[in-house]
Amino acid sequence: MTQETGGFAALGLHSSVVAALTAVGYEEPSPIQAQAIPMILAGHDMIGQAQTGTGKTAAFALPILSKIDPSKREPQALILAPTRELALQVATAFETYSKQMPGLNVVAVYGGAPMGPQLKALRMGAQVVVATPGRLVDHLGRNADLLKTVQFLVLDEADEMLKLGFMDDLEVIFQALPESRQSVLFSATLPASIRAIAEKHLREPKHVKIAAKTQTVARIEQAHLMVHADQKVAAVTRLLEVEDFDALIGFVRTKQATLDVASALEARGYKVAPLNGDIAQNQRERVIESLKDGRLDIVIATDVAARGIDVPRITHVLNIDMPYDPESYVHRIGRTGRAGREGRALLLVTPRERRMLQVIERVTGQKVAEVRLPDAETVLQARIRRLSQKLQPLVATAEASHGDLLAKLATDLECSPQALAAALLAKLTEGQGLTLDAVRREQPEVPNFSSRERSSSGERSGERRERAPRAEGEGARGRSMPPVAEGRARCRAGVGARDGIQAKNLLGAILNEGGLSREALGRIQIRDTFSLVELPEEGLDRLLAKLKDTRVAGKQLKLRRYRED
Questions:
Q1: How far apart, in whole angstroms, are the C-alpha atoms of residue 141 and residue 484?
Q2: What is the pLDDT of residue 446?
Q3: Radius of gyration for the chain, computed over Cα atoms and rounded to the nearest angstrom
Q4: CA 220 from chain center: how many Å?
Q5: Residues 14 and 133 in one domain
Q6: What range defines the domain where residue 384 resides?
Q7: Residue 485 exposure: Cα atoms within 13 Å on the Cβ side
Q8: What is the pLDDT of residue 98?
Q9: Using an 8 Å Cβ cutoff, are 438 and 490 in contact?
């Protein structure tokens, strides 16, 4: 057991769980983890008051995984989350922490996705079920005994669940669970409604309260760029052309990525080396020494392999892959800005990682500014500037030391000194384009898009696609929609194309937070300043009340019946 994970091992977690923590580079438990893990392992019901970003997911996932029996192919743990995004995030965390537990399966159950794969995963005996309340109630309608074997219940962000109108669904779920279960409730706030749930459904719960720690990294300039997952390497090469760095450490999530990125940069002439868990300790020490003395300028590392690196000349940290949590982000960027020096931290963000960016900003208490990728002209100017800086110290003495040789070579070659100087310059910059066309040929274009712009980013390579009803928006603005199908009502949402809204955004919000099945929605039409959605007529007023405070792309949905003049 390494010293870094000694804190987790001392909490009594299963050895397989501790091994998974070592693999992802977790070092010491956060305050919420240190308090909650022993309580949950001891079998107590618990109320945790904690914000997102304090490490609360691991606080309940780690002890639950330590108590689950992978040999029993039946649901043993149920985690309820208010939104599709949080459910996916929690499910991913469980998968990460259970990688050393053969036979342990996790299923995410949420609206806006087909029922078939979810039903299959449940039939196959997934031991951990992460669900939004509305879709779970749909599953209970098909199989009332689905939750009979659940031993552990977690309500994550319980206050958000009540804000979204899930109280009735929660009562249905509570009735379907065994009374003998262990229950854990996490909530940022504890209003009377949450306390009422705790009194009714938890048994003598222990209380843990943790405030989100504001982490400041004042000397480090932070920025993020929106990129597609399959264009990260191209984006990195562009950035390195214009960033004025002394030494840089780039963080990725996997061992293979350290090799792939380092290889791509080495091919472009950078002094770079990978650093991952497969590299022997003596080799690791040589890499770090080379970074210190300038034989290397770039190291591409995983979190676990980068432990203990303290190299004063590191001016830049490049988060090529998003860290698993805000604490890892703070730990990463702390590699620069050492000894009173200023540093710069860059973060590549794919469209599906926007939520984690927001969490990082909230936890650190600092805005991570958005920047754009440099264009070919900017790259060219940076190359010329670096070439000038390289030649500047030589100009003063070169004529005295090499002037005679230049004259002799010009005579021998029967060319002018200017032509010879140009030839030598071409030799010096061999393999590097110094015209606009050459730069464009060398480097693939990387689309520049903002976190506020609409894009088809969710449908790019490496991103999860979400099936949505066909939106009759782009080519149909200003046209009337076909008659509403029987049993449905047309409703108006106060967000549209100018807000960066797509049909899939509305679909996910309405299905997820309204507790509907996908088949319940009809056509969706995206217009410039608003959108039209066909919803079930039966129970519409109740549904609209349920969706009253729902937000999409940071704006209130403001859904109401639509009446054409």
A1: 28
A2: 59
A3: 28
A4: 21
A5: yes
A6: 377-442
A7: 12
A8: 93
A9: no
Give the pairing type, strands 488-493 and 531-536. antiparallel
Residues 352/458, Cβ–Cβ less than 8 Å: yes
How many domains would you assign to the chain?
4
Tell me what pLDDT residue 443 has.
Answer: 59
Closest of 407, 374, 120 to residue 234, by C-alpha: 374
How many Å apart are CA 187 and CA 160, to the nearest integer? 8
pLDDT of residue 460: 34
Do residue 469 and residue 425 come from a single domain? Answer: no
Do the beta carbons of residue 529 and residue 496 sit within 8 Å?
A: yes
Do 353 and 240 belong together in one domain? yes
How confident is the model over 42-56, as pLDDT tens digits?
999 999 987 666 678
The verdict on 49 and 186 lying in the same domain is yes
Q: Which amino acid is at 25?
A: G
Spatial neighbors of 457 by CB under 8 A, at least 6 apart, are 226, 228, 350, 351, 449, 463
Please identify every stretch of the chain with a pLDDT value under 70, giving residue numbers as ranges. 1-6, 51-54, 211-218, 308, 338-341, 376, 379, 382, 387, 429-482, 553-554, 564-565
In which residue are the tokens 């200023």 written? Answer: 342
Q: What pLDDT, on a 0 to 100 scale, did the predictor assign at position 71?
A: 93
Residue pair 503/470 in contact by the 8 Å Cβ criterion: yes
Does some domain include residue 131?
Answer: yes
For residue 436, what pLDDT is reported? Answer: 65
Please state, as a whole number, how many other Cβ atoms lie within 10 Å of the Cβ of residue 381.
14
